[in-house]
Prior knowledge:
Order of helices and strands: EEHEHEHEHEHEHEEHEHHEHH
Helix content: 25-40%
Number of strands: 11
Largest sheet: 5 strands, parallel
Distance between the termini: 18 Å
Amino acid sequence: MHQVPGQHPQPHGAQRxxxxxxxxxxxxxxxxxxxxxxxxxxxxxxxxxxxxxDALHRRTVALVFQxxxxxxxxxxxxxxxxxxxxxxxxxxxxxxxxxxESVRDTAYILGANAAAIGIRTPSDELVQExxxxxxVPVINMLTALHHPCQALADLMTLREAFGELRxxxxxxxxxxxxxxxxxxxxxxxxxxxxxxxxxDGYQLEQLPGVLLTDDPxxxxxxxxxxxxxxxxxxxxxxxTTQARRAALAGYRIDDALLNLAAPHAIALHCLPAHPGDEIxxxxxxxxxxxxxxxxxxRRHAQKALLELLVAxxx
Length: 314
């Protein structure tokens, strides 16, 4: 995990003693491979027995949402409650950040009242600054560049389907966005072979161990799983919607493309989905997908993450 040596600077008069090593989850790269394996194993246990842990008994987790959310909000809110804690949900208009209060001051206040802070915001810089000042763990619940909590649920879903992660071939087809990036970062820790098919201008930057191609058929050939995401995200400029759909039109997951994968292949999607754009309704609701398992697994994987992060906190 992301470790910050020593103590963070404290506002005058602060009494709280901080841990020597503070752990955050910002990109997924903070995890060691063995930590990731144990986290996924723990997620399986928590899925089998959702009320078996009281790791957050009488503790609060601040959940800050600067963008609308369905899966992230419901999975984190339900997960914190199942761990015995209180989810303090804060929308953009609920904090003084909208009136110019600094991220640093916000970090001090949230950290004084919560055992951990989750934040969903377009700004990676805001998350980094929050983590730089917060006296408690900070979790990136989604930014423009990273979606590491989704990647944890994705790997949990792949383990359920195939058992062993190392050596699995995962094809990502469509916009090389934050989801693709997090799959590359977290998947590499598990030994997954990731192939990303995207057109010019929408491709992921080159990351270690990732095959980049503009040919979806090449990416999908023999793959164990085929993954996609929406073509137009909330953070995208509405003026580019038509151009994005036109550029990505050849990157739709349909039965014909899925047939090029391994016979046992499954389709994955982080949702929300737009049937007819990035995926057909036949695949989205058909027998070869694990998409709705993915959505549920957000809760279980995030509970395991919260346990890991708060374990050593006072």
